[in-house]
Design brief:
Strand content: 25-35%
Distance between the termini: 35 Å
Radius of gyration: 16 Å
CATH class: Alpha Beta
CATH architecture: Alpha-Beta Complex
Structural class: alpha+beta
Number of domains: 1
Largest sheet: 7 strands, mixed
């Protein structure tokens, strides 16, 4: 069985970090409460070097923060786009990006909901239990505007749903009760500085020639 899928297709070999990261620069990650995270993003309509450069930056920023996925509004850009480098529950690695993602909902009622831990780079240092379907199918485009479909199960399905939510201006805290959300924000306040310092150190390491 292939151990890596890139843009939804099996790959024989793949480096530790996606090649895009080698062309990118680390950007600041937005945090819960910032307006860009809480409003729907715009569809991408222009495909070209600017979009490619944004994707490169997003990959490097994601790796610097030890993330499994990152949406464009998490680097302050209100476009419907995310990148990912995420394992599924069988340990298969999935790497890629999706422009203008749409989460397929047909048959969702028959899917098993998994109540498992979920974090977000825009809510640093916090993991909360969030129910998500154990399978997700996302349709969208690649950086050149070509149509693509990415399917995932388990933890990768959670990643696909989580990142698609971001493009509509939703964060996972929106799926929690008021009490749970307050608890998450308390945890963030206690751990944020340590997490940000760790990210800065990793960014310096990854940015070295």
């Amino acid at each position: 069985m292939p151990r890596v899928f890139v843009q939804g297709s099996p790959a024989d070999h793949y480096p530790r970090y996606a090649p895009e990261a080698g062309r990118g620069a680390v950007r600041r990650i937005t945090e819960v409460g910032e307006e860009v995270l809480h409003r729907p993003c715009r569809d991408v309509t222009e495909f070209g070097p600017d979009l490619a450069a944004l994707i490169d930056d997003m990959f490097l920023t994601m790796y610097a923060a030890d993330g499994a996925g990152l949406a464009a509004n998490q680097v302050g850009v209100g476009l419907r786009l995310f990148v990912y480098d995420c394992p599924d529950d069988e340990g298969v690695r999935h790497v890629g990006h999706v422009v203008n993602p749409v989460l397929e909902h047909s048959g969702a009622a028959g899917r098993r909901l998994i109540d498992d831990g979920e974090g977000c780079l825009s809510v640093p240092g916090v993991v909360m239990a969030v129910p998500r379907p154990d399978r997700a199918v996302v349709h969208g485009q690649d950086r050149d505007g070509r149509p693509l479909t990415v399917e995932g199960t388990g933890y990768f399905a959670r990643c696909l749903a989580h990142e698609t939510d971001h493009t509509y201006g939703h964060i996972y805290l929106d799926r929690l009760s008021k009490r749970e959300k307050k608890d998450a924000l308390r945890q963030m306040a206690a751990q944020r500085d340590e997490v940000i310092a760790r990210r800065a150190a990793k960014a310096t390491e990854l940015s070295r020639p």
